[in-house]
Every structure is written in C-alpha cells, then in structure tokens.
C-alpha cells in the first residue's frame, strides 16, 4: 500500500489562487500579503461516509440517445423565491447563497426551512456559527414551530453526513461553509483548501442522496463571495441577497442557475416577522404625490423579466466649494458624472459650479443604462427648479454624443407604466417602429401619448416648453 504524499502549496486567502512558491502579491487578484502556506495531503478530503466504493468506467453516450425526463421541482409557495429559482427547488441541486452581514440571509433561510417543513418534508439546518438557542429565538420571531425542521449546531462535516443518513432530510442548510471542516483535512478551518474539500463533499452528498443542499457563504468587503472562486463553479445555483440595511427593500438575484434563467429576481421588504415578497413592486417604490416636485423623474427599470417603476430624485444647488460635490445613492456614480458632462457639453446646461445629488427612492439600485434619460431630466428639473408634469415617464440610454439610444423590453416598460396610470412617454427615436407597430395592433388604445427624442437636446427642449415664460433659463 503506497504512502500518502503531503505537498506544500501557497493559496491566496482572498481568491483561492494556488502557487507552488510564496509570493508577496497574488498573481490572480493582485492582493498583497495574502499568500498563505497550506499542507495538502492526498486522498484526505472527503468524510468517510462519502468515499467511493466502486470504480466502474462510464460508457459515453450519443447526444441523440440521451432522453430528458420531466424535471421535478419542489414549489415552496414563496412566489418571489420560486421565481428566482426558475419555478422551485430541483432535488439534488446545490445552491450557494451569499449576502452582506445583517442583510437578512439567516431570516430568509429559516423561512425556506419553514416552507419546506409545511409540506411535510424534512429540513435540516446545520450551523457552525450559532447555537441551537439562537436559532430557536429567531424561529419564534418568525412564528415557526414545525416538527419537521431539525437544527444541528456542529461544524464537523462527518457528523453532518451521519445525521443526514439517519434523518433522510429533503433540504439541508449549511451555515456557513467557512465554519465547516473535514476532520481528514489538515488545513485550518476557513482556508481555501478546507472550503473546497467541504463543498466537494456536499456536492457529492446532494447527488448521491438526491437532496437539496443550500450553502451559505460569507462575502468580502467588495461584495464577492469569500473563498476560492472555484466555489461558484462547483455548485448549481448562485444567489445573492442585496439591499441597504437602512432601507426595507431587498433583492434576491440569480447569478448562476443550471436549471433556469439567470435573469429573474425576487423582491422583498423586511418586516418584524421576516422577509415578505412584494406583489406590486412599482406601487411600493412609487410614492403618490399630490403635486409634482422639481427634481423628481419616473422611469421603468427591468428586474429580470419584469418592469418596475422607479423614482429618481436629484438636487442641484450652487456650490461654495472650489470642487463641487457629486453624490449618488442607488445610481451608478460614474454614470452620473458622465451624464453631467454630456448635459453641459451637448445640452448647454451649466452644472460645473453646482453641487449635484442623485438618489433612487426607497433604496432601489438602478443597474441599467435605460434610466439615463430619466436621471438627466431629474437633474435639469432640479437645476431649473421646475417640476416634471405628473403622468410622465422617460426611458433611454444617453451616449457621449448626446444621442438617445434605444432600450430593450420597451413594450414591457410601457405596459407597466400604463398599469400605473402614466400617459406621456418620452422614448428613444430608435424604438418608434416597434412601439407604433404594437400600438396600432391594440384594440383598446387607452391614453397613450408618446414623445420620441433622438438627442438629449430634444428632451431638454421639451422641458423648456413646460417652463414659465418669465423664468430665466440657465
């Protein structure tokens, strides 16, 4: 019997990159002083219960010979979660779940266990960070009391595998992967080597037992999952819970999904009794105002396959500083700087001596360029101190030349705006043909007044018509 070999490697604690020799700077992520020494012993990375017993050679099959069966999904009766997962949980899948501390990960996970147990199936919550009493306190706050939800406060993966063998659960939660360890692995807990070993064992467990395993991962200060990047490639689904802790709004976003689209998102609000799905996101994000206010513009953003109405607020005041302030919350800061430059160069709106603040209401984060036109109009509205009339929505991407570029899913945006009783639509000229063809085919025309603009100057001219004749336009 051959002796097991031990090798020394150096791994980056930030990204998990490996090197045969020590380096002061990681060659992959560029971080300094993150290369740590690890001793790796071959064939010592799986719990005893998961070691292979057979070594049969698999036969290669023709693509035409492979038959697809019906994909069974466990629907959780949590519409926002089911939507994000593509219709429900697939048995045998491994889900990696990340999010910033305090964002609501543990709360949502317990709600998932609650949804699973309500269907009469078993859920096992394994934690290496909290005690059973802490989990019980959170469960009582969420009004959970199911007998089919089990708690195991242990980070030893061998004990977890043995518990799975005894209980035979359908849903297993690992909170978190950074606190789990395989006793046969000599690397320290939380090291990239230990994380890879634990994840490999959990993936193997999910496939062997045909159970769903949800792995919670810590995130770095940049918002990425901590540990080796390989972690995301090993699992089937990667989910992120995003939001600002000072707001109630939360977004569950799919980064990777082998069983469905990655464009779907779940929208929640944080309440005392847990995260609640939002049935009408537009109604939640748009606050009805009796009178229009200067510096407020409405746009329609795409979150997954659905359109959501969002309010972009702006404030522009004369600056007393040599370097005017530029602050953005919920809107990309670099994008705001570009819009200010285009407004000054192409539309002749002098903002170089003004402090400019841009905010997206209710804690929503705009991540697409289709909101450019609305943000620019909000800034101009604040600069001129004139409100944009009620019932107006603007959407379009602004190029460096001042051109208004067409947007995708324009019809979905229009339909959502019509549902929210908007009647005037500032749209890119490039979307005219698609919009007119759709409108001409409608039996119920309703109230629809499109205004097509090809240049940013056209939108500014439209706003000038709404401004009083006696006011000075600068």
Automatic annotation (TrEMBL):
The keyword Zinc-finger applies. Residues 70-219 form the RecA family profile domain. Keywords: ATP-binding, DNA damage, DNA repair, DNA-binding, Hydrolase, Metal-binding, Nucleotide-binding, Stress response, Zinc, Zinc-finger. Residues 355-474 are annotated as: Lon-protease-like. The keyword Membrane does not apply. InterPro entries: AAA+_ATPase (IPR003593), DNA_repair_RadA (IPR004504), P-loop_NTPase (IPR027417), RecA_ATP-bd (IPR020588), Ribosomal_Su5_D2-typ_SF (IPR020568), Ribsml_uS5_D2-typ_fold_subgr (IPR014721), Rubredoxin_2 (IPR041166). Plays a role in repairing double-strand DNA breaks, probably involving stabilizing or processing branched DNA or blocked replication forks. DNA-dependent ATPase involved in processing of recombination intermediates, plays a role in repairing DNA breaks. Stimulates the branch migration of RecA-mediated strand transfer reactions, allowing the 3' invading strand to extend heteroduplex DNA faster. Binds ssDNA in the presence of ADP but not other nucleotides, has ATPase activity that is stimulated by ssDNA and various branched DNA structures, but inhibited by SSB. Does not have RecA's homology-searching function. Belongs to the RecA family. RadA subfamily. The middle region has homology to RecA with ATPase motifs including the RadA KNRFG motif, while the C-terminus is homologous to Lon protease. This is DNA repair protein RadA.
């Amino acid at each position: 019997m051959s002796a097991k070999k031990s090798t020394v490697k150096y791994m980056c604690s930030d990204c998990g990159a490996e090197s045969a020799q020590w380096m002061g700077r990681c060659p992959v992520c560029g971080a300094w002083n993150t290369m740590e020494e690890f001793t790796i012993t071959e064939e010592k990375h799986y719990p005893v219960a998961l070691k292979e017993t057979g070594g049969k050679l698999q036969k290669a099959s023709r693509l035409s010979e492979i038959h697809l069966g019906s994909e069974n999904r466990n629907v959780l009766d949590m519409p926002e979660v089911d939507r994000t997962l593509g219709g429900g949980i697939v048995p045998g899948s491994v889900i990696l779940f990340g999010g910033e501390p305090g964002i609501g990960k543990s709360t949502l996970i317990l709600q998932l266990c609650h949804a699973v147990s309500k269907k009469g199936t078993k859920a096992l919550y394994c934690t290496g960070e909290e005690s059973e009493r802490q989990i019980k306190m959170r469960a009582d706050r969420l009004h959970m009391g199911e007998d089919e939800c089990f708690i195991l406060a242990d980070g030893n993966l061998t004990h977890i595998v043995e518990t799975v063998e005894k209980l035979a659960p359908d849903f297993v939660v690992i909170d978190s992967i950074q606190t789990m360890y395989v006793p046969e692995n000599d690397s320290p807990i939380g090291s990239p080597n230990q994380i890879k070993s634990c994840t490999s064992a959990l993936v193997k467990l999910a496939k062997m037992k045909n159970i769903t395993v949800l792995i919670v991962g810590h995130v770095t200060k940049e918002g990425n999952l901590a540990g080796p990047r390989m972690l995301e490639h090993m699992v089937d689904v990667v989910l992120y819970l995003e939001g600002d802790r000072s707001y109630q709004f939360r977004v569950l976003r799919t980064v990777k999904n082998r069983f469905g689209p990655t464009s779907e998102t779940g929208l929640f609000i944080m309440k005392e009794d847990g995260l609640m799905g939002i049935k009408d996101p537009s109604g939640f994000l748009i606050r009805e105002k009796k009178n229009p206010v200067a510096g407020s513009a409405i746009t329609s953003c795409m979150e997954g396959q659905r359109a959501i109405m969002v309010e972009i607020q702006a404030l522009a005041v004369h600056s007393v500083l040599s370097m005017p302030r530029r602050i953005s919350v919920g809107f990309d800061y670099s994008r705001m700087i570009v819009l200010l430059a285009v407004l000054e160069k192409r539309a002749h709106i002098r903002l170089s001596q003004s402090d400019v603040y841009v905010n997206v209401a209710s804690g929503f984060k705009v991540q697409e360029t289709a909101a450019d036109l609305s943000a620019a109009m909000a800034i101009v509205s604040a600069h001129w101190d004139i409100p944009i009339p009620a019932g107006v929505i603007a959407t379009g991407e602004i190029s460096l030349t001042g051109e208004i570029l067409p947007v995708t899913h324009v019809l979905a945006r229009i339909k959502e705006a019509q549902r929210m009783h908007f009647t005037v639509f500032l749209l890119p000229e490039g979307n005219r043909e698609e919009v007119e063809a759709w409108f001409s085919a409608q039996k119920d025309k309703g109230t629809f007044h499109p205004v097509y603009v090809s240049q940013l100057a056209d939108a500014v001219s439209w706003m000038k018509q709404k401004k009083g004749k006696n006011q000075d336009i600068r």
